[in-house]
Design brief:
By secondary structure, the protein is an alpha+beta fold. The chain is built from 5 helices and 24 strands. Helices cover 16% and strands 35% of the residues. The strands form 8 sheets. A 5-stranded antiparallel beta sheet has the order 6-5-4-1-7. A 4-stranded antiparallel beta sheet has the order 16-24-23-17. Strands 11-8-15 form a 3-stranded antiparallel beta sheet, with no helix packed on it.
Length: 346
C-alpha cells in the first residue's frame, strides 16, 4: 500500500477517534450527569469501581476493576438504587452512590433531577405478598406486605413488577397482584383519579416501644401532610406537619441526626418528608426551595442522596403549576406510600 494512502488512513482514523464520543465506545451509553468522587472521606480514601452492581455492601473480597481518587471527575450514564454506572476506560463500571458528589445534569431541560425514580404503576394489595430480592420465587424475601397496602412500581418485565426497596430493587410476582393502574405519563393526561407521581418507602415493623412510636409518628405526620396546594402555594414541612410535639400527637422515637440515631419527639417524620421529596422529584412544576440530606450516608430507607431532613432542617417546595395539586399518603404494614394528583376543578 502506498505510503501516501497509509498516511491518509492514519489521519482519517485519528479524526474519527476524536469525533466518536466516549459514550459510543462504552456500549453507546449517553452521559446523563457529571459528578465527582467525594472528598468527604479524606484525601487518602480510595473509591472503588466495580464490574457489576449486584453486591449491596461490597467488601474487600468483592472484585474491583479500578480505583478513583477523591475529587476525580466522573461521567454518569445510569443511576441505580445503590450505585451509579460511570464511563470507565472503554467500557463502564459501578460506583457506590455514597461515594460521589456535585452531580449535575448534562442537559437539565431533558434529564430528570438526579435520583429521580419514575413509578409508572400502582396498586392496592388484596392479599398478602412477598417482595423478593430477585425476579424469581426462590430469592430472599425483603418484606411481607398485607392486603390494603398501597404500592408503586417502576416497571414490569417477564411477569415481575419492580420497585425500589431501600437501596436495592425489589420484585413482586404480578400473578399475586390485583389490577395494576397506570400513573399518568404526563400532567396533561391526568385526571382526579390518576396520580401524576407516586413513591414508596419502607420501614421496620418490629414490635418494640421506640419502633411502635415511630410507626405512630408516620401515621400522625402523614395525616397532617395530606392537603391540596393551590398554584403558587408552598409547603413548609416543619411548619405544616410539625411542630413535632406531644400536643400534636407525636411520640418519642429514634430519628437520624447527622447520621446518628437519637431519640426525639416525632422521630420518623424525616421519612415522610423524604418520601414526599421523591414523589416531588419527577414533577417539573413543583419547585424545591429547601432540602437537606441526613449527613454523609443519608437515610438508609432510601437510595443515597434523595432524603430530606425535617425538624432541625426543613423541606420546602412550591406549586408552580397553573392548577392545584393534591397530596395523599397511606401508611400500613411497613410501607409508606405518597401520591400526588392533579386536582380537577369542579
Amino acid at each position: 500500500m502506498p505510503k501516501r494512502l497509509l498516511a491518509g488512513l492514519f489521519i482519517l482514523t485519528a479524526i474519527l477517534t476524536l469525533l466518536i464520543p466516549t459514550s459510543y465506545a462504552a456500549n453507546r451509553k449517553t452521559v446523563l450527569y457529571k459528578g465527582s468522587v467525594t472528598t468527604a472521606y479524606g484525601s487518602g480514601s480510595a473509591t472503588y469501581v466495580y464490574p457489576t452492581a449486584d453486591v449491596q455492601r461490597p467488601n474487600s473480597s468483592v472484585e474491583r476493576i479500578g480505583t478513583l481518587k477523591p475529587g476525580s471527575s466522573i461521567d454518569i450514564v445510569d443511576v441505580l438504587p445503590n450505585y451509579v454506572e460511570i464511563l470507565y476506560g472503554n467500557s463502564t463500571g459501578f460506583v457506590l452512590r455514597m461515594r460521589i458528589d456535585n452531580v449535575t445534569a448534562v442537559d437539565p431541560a431533558a434529564t430528570p433531577r438526579y435520583g429521580t425514580v419514575v413509578s409508572r404503576y400502582f396498586t392496592i394489595l388484596n392479599s398478602e405478598i412477598n417482595v423478593k430480592s430477585q425476579p424469581h420465587a426462590n430469592s430472599e424475601t425483603l418484606i411481607t406486605l398485607q392486603a390494603g397496602t398501597h404500592l408503586g412500581f417502576v416497571d414490569i418485565s417477564d411477569g415481575w413488577a419492580r420497585l425500589i426497596f431501600k437501596r436495592q430493587y425489589g420484585y413482586v410476582n404480578t400473578d399475586q397482584l390485583p389490577a395494576l393502574e397506570m400513573v399518568a405519563p404526563t400532567v396533561d393526561s391526568a385526571s382526579g383519579d390518576i396520580p401524576i407521581a407516586v413513591y414508596n418507602s419502607f420501614y421496620n415493623i418490629a414490635e418494640n416501644e421506640m419502633n411502635l412510636n415511630r410507626m405512630e409518628n408516620l401515621k400522625v405526620g402523614s395525616q397532617r401532610m395530606d392537603r391540596v396546594m393551590l398554584p403558587g402555594e408552598s409547603l413548609d414541612f416543619n411548619g405544616s406537619v410539625g411542630p413535632f410535639s406531644a400536643r400534636n400527637g407525636y411520640l418519642k422515637a429514634w430519628s437520624l441526626f447527622e447520621g446518628e440515631l437519637v431519640p426525639s419527639s416525632g422521630g420518623g417524620s424525616c421519612q415522610i418528608s423524604s418520601t414526599l421529596y421523591n414523589a416531588v422529584l419527577p414533577l417539573r412544576g413543583l419547585t424545591v426551595l429547601a432540602r437537606a440530606p441526613h449527613g454523609l450516608n443519608g437515610a438508609p430507607y432510601l437510595p443515597h442522596g434523595v432524603d430530606a431532613s425535617s425538624g432541625g432542617l426543613n423541606f420546602i417546595f412550591r406549586n408552580d403549576y397553573d392548577f392545584p395539586v393534591r397530596i395523599v399518603s397511606h401508611v400500613q404494614d411497613g410501607a409508606l406510600f405518597i401520591a400526588i394528583y392533579k386536582e380537577m376543578s369542579t
